[in-house]
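Exam revision sheet. Question 4 asks you to relate a sequence to its structure. Input first:
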Amino acid sequence: MPRQIDPASFGFLVTDLARMLRAEMDRRIAGSGMELTPGEVRLLAQAARAGTVRQSVLAERIGVEAMTVSAYVDRLEARGLIERLPDPSDRRAKLIALTDAADAVLDQVKVFAEDARRQAAQSVDPHEWAAMLKVLKTVRCNLSDARIEARSSAA
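Answer key, C-alpha cells:
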C-alpha cells in the first residue's frame, strides 16, 4: 500500500514557506554588496530581536552549532557590528550585544524583508493576511507553552 503524505499539511506548508523565505532573503543579502553572509545577517537579526543574550541562545534561534555562531560573532565583532560583554551571572560566559553600527545593516535587511513580504502577500486580502499572522502567533505560543511544559515535566 503506498504511503499517503499530504504536501499541504500544516508542517509541510510552514517548512516550505520558511525555506522559500530564507532562500529569498539569502539571495537578496548575497546580491546586496553588504559583504556579510546570510548567516551573519540572520545572527544580527536574531540579536536585534533577542536583545543582549548569550551566544548559545543565538545558536539555537538560527539553528546552527555553537562553533558556527562563534565564527559569525568573530567576524561581526571585527566589523564593529556587535560586541562581547561579560555575563554578570557567569564569569566564563559572554553576552552578545549589537552596536549602533548594526543599525544601518538592519535597516537594509528590513527593506529586503518588507519587499519579500509584499511579494508573498501580493494576491492575499490584507484582512486575511492579518488573520493568518494572528493565527501563526497563536500557534507559536501554543508550541512554546508545550515546550515549556515538557521541560518542566522532565525536570
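Marking note for examiners. DSSP finds six helices and three strands in the chain.
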